[in-house]
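haha ok so turns out i had the wrong file open the whole time. this is the CORRECT one, sorry everyone. sequence first:
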Amino acid sequence: MVAHAVTKASKHAAPDPAPHGAHIDAAAASFAALTHRLDYLDPADIKRVREAYRYADEAHLGQFRASGEPYITHPIAVAGLCAEWKLDAQAIMAALMHDVMEDSGATKIELIEKFGAPTAELVDGLTKLDKLQFSTREESQAESFRKMLLAMARDVRVVLIKLADRLHNMRTMEAMPTAKRSRIARETLDIYAPIAHRLGLNQIYRELQELSFQYLLPWRFAALTKAVQKARGHRRDIVERIRGDVERAFGDAKLEVQIFGREKTLYSIYNKMREKHLSFAQVNDIFGFRIVVSTLPQCYLALGVLHQLYKPMPGRFKDYIAIPKANGYQSLHTTLVSPLGTAVEFQLRTDSMHLVAEKGIAAHWLYKASDSGSVTEAQRVGTVSLQSLIDIQDETRDAAEFLEHVKVDLFPDAVYVFTPMSKILALPRGATPVDFAYAIHSDVGDHTVAAKVNGEQVALRTELRSGDVVEVITAPVSRPNPAWLNFVRTGRARSKIRHYLKNMRQEESIELGEKLLAQAMRAEGLHMPTGDESSPDGHDAALWQGLVRWSGNRGKRELLIDIGLGKKIATIVAKRLAKLMAEAGARPDALTLSMSRYLTDDNMPTQAMVTLDGSEGATVQMATCCRPIPGDSIVGYLGRGEGLVVHTSECQVGKRLFQRDSERWIAVEWSEEPQRMFDSAVSVLVQNGKGVLAKVAQAVSEAEADITHIDMGHDPGQASIDLKLLLAVRDRVHLADVLRTLKRSPLVLRAARIKPS
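then structure:
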């Protein structure tokens, strides 16, 4: 539960007796109407539903909606919507009681005792997390939504009841403040309508979109409503003529069909106008027809009849029977040109396909409400349909990030691609081979190095198109690249990549934190205890438990991460650990102490030297102000939460930081054998002329360096241009070679390393 279109009075308030009596009559009448919809249940189940109604009615006594109606009318309406899908008695009971835990203080244990564990689990899954404190509304919304997803993974009825609840709230929002209406409508459009679409609940999907559109953009909604009504009048003769032609054609073919008129929703018209920059008059597929036949072969026979009657528009035929949509939708779509030149879309399907198309996952209950196998199949389909959302909530712990991934993943427009084994996968439009790899399995995505589309190797950022055959090439040593986050489209891929990078950063931080703390302990003349707070060695365990309690961390691992990220200073932690060890009887070792002092720079705090070879990962960064490279004299700054930042000794930015925050500086040095190339900023003044950039690039290449970035400035018409290059070099000697090679070029007037001012 995220938001209700209600204003709830205090349970202890004393409402006006006369109106309250009238409301009770209205509520009773509403429940009487509900019982007529429950004729598919047996008498024992209807009796249990009535008991749930009485319990909910008592729980909500004295509570009113913003419209002035008693609050119980809302659960009754939600239960009525669930009854239309022929959901079982447990679901109807949960729909009636879906707010009792939230509003009346009822407990899950109490519901289990009165109505059984399955019903109580449904109610609990629908109850939002109001009792917990969240820093923002977004965090609260995300955590409540996460809870609903987890409950839905166990039982898909949770999301069906939730959608019914949201639909009734959207239908009755007139009495709410404008700002709240807009917020709820936006949330519905971003999350709940796409979930309905994902589950194939097209009736609810369309209505939620229309209601959201009405409250978010009321002026556009009103204008389009008038335009469609006017067009309906103008095009009535055309529609009737086409219907007559179609009926005669099927009669001549002796094919029994049901013909339904279909009108595009206002929201889909608005979207088409906005995305394709069309006026209303240019949207020519507002009206269409739906042909329902008895058997699957008749779908294709009916298609032949239509194509003989009117000419089909090239490229506008889609076979969703052979390749169903991800939510189970099946139909043939074809667009024909009528005798008057207008484009008319026809959808052809069987009765069972029509039921699934409109009711989606709820159709499993409608087929045979008493068939438990059908309900099991609905649970399986529901879990598969929203599996990527369940995976995302399992990977993502940050609330805002979680909601961002969910919104991305619910994007309804899809492309259909094939694996080399001819399995079909549905992906969002704009998806890439990396999205495809993660859709196969997270291990495939993590180890992706290249991809082939239709047998040809392509870049990993290539957008896939429907019908593409995609093959992913993996390597055991490959790891996710942070640059992938710039182009992946699925929430699943985005969350998996972020989760991996976050874990990798934590492991690197632990390694750096352990190194810094061990060196700081040597400065105290002590060796760091080898165990941890769960160590079988009671002495080490007691030391770490005491240190962790003092630091406020949850364990040794978290403490080392904080040290590696610079959130805690290794020297301060070491002094505390040394004190705990002294209390336990440990004494500083004179040799260790003297060696530590010998290794420490006089200008640095008492932390020993850290050796860098370029393999440290994201926890060690080269400062962009001075861009140190091997051979430079360097110092390290433990930034708060950003790990170790390395500056050159003469960097003015670094010197200012040292004056302000001297205890965060540690001594660092280069390894004798660096493991990678490092970026260095270079300024090259060249004569402006044809091919100058190519000649500069050739000179850099001859010196065995690479250009990673180039800035040519904003005034290319000058006689000379000052190029700013980022060069990947091994060390200072290599950089000097590159600069000498550049200076030998006749077009180069000056070449020098850029140093921070």
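The mean pLDDT is 78.
again sry for the mixup
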